[in-house]
Amino acid sequence: MLRLSPEDPKAVMPVVKRLLKLSGLTQETTRFGAINFLNLFIYIAAVLVPKVCFPYPNTEAMIRGLSELIFFTNVYVGFFCFISQHRQRDLLNAIDSFVDVVYPTAAHPSDSPSEQILIKFNVKIQKLSVVFCWYIAVTATFYWLAPCLMTYRSIYMASVSVENGSVQSIQYYPNLEESFYWLDNRSSVYGYATFSIVALLVFTVASYNNATKLLTILTTIKYCNTLLQLVIIEVDNLNHATSNAIDRELKQVIQLHQRAVRCVALLNQTLSFVMTVQLALCILTWCFTLLYILTVGLDVTGMNGLLIMFNMTLEMFGYCFFCTELATTGTLIACQSYEFRWEEHDPKIQKMISTIVARSQLPLRITACGFITVNVELFAKVVKTTYSVFIVLKDFI
């Protein structure tokens, strides 16, 4: 699965589909995989309940704990919001049906520009998906391993000081800032080691959730954008079509455009609530992370907080940038349709072109809550809102 070069360059999002299959999600069935209930149990039992129902030793620990809670809520709850949407199966099927029109059979030669673009795009997506999976694995390992190494170093230094006749206390750096039920994970070596195993499980599942959610969303947005680009190419090719073939070519363009618009509509329905959760939790994560660094300083836990903030920023900006690109490509179809020499053709052809133009003028956008357009401008507004909320929280604390 994690090969840089795809086994089949014509396959649509193979990495994403295999990640979804690990949760029991396939295009053939609407069954909700039982493994997802274990996934949900880990979030509730190992993250939500300890961080909400058990006390923190000080204000700084509480701020970090809430920041982690918001981040993991975005990862776990965002993942569940996405996979519980039955529209995501319809979306994957709609993308497959579009691709089948471009190359109907597996034995069809890849000689048309549209096929070449799709194949190059599939190869590029495969490489980026694999690299991102490794990035998630490395960052999660660092987040879990760095506190462990610092703690075990402190234990070693304490044992050396005892041999030298002095006493040096052990400083424990928690993997996750929480009191894990009645386990003494803040001042006991056994408790800390036990909790580290629990934290490793949390990070492993969270890494899978985050990679699956982010890759699926970004890849489908980018795929829909590529489908619209193929429509633009096909519209441009109409100027080179013969009079005998123009009717057939135009009907195929209308079919492709209709399928592409349906893909974007399904994408919007699938992501509307997910983007709402992402938008709200991104602001809160930024605020609490900055507040923690301002209060405590840039130590090991502060670096981990910056890592969380960087990942959230990367994810949010990726959504906004790709959605802006998608909306821009949608408007280009109308522009390309206007350049077609429709006046040289009979009224039947002109009417078919007007259908493409009319459909192209409808805005293609992804929204949060159904009315907040996700774009780069929204990202700038989120940054400004975060700063305002951060100032209020800083004065309150």
UniProtKB/TrEMBL annotation:
InterPro entries: 7tm6_olfct_rcpt (IPR004117). GO terms for molecular function: odorant binding; olfactory receptor activity. One of its GO terms (biological process) is detection of chemical stimulus involved in sensory perception of smell. Its main location: membrane. The keyword Ubl conjugation does not apply. It is a multi-pass membrane protein. Keywords: Cell membrane, Membrane, Olfaction, Receptor, Sensory transduction, Transducer, Transmembrane, Transmembrane helix. Transmembrane segments: none annotated. Pfam families: 7tm_6. It is found in: Cell membrane. One of its GO terms (cellular component) is plasma membrane. This is Uncharacterized protein. It comes from Anopheles gambiae (African malaria mosquito).
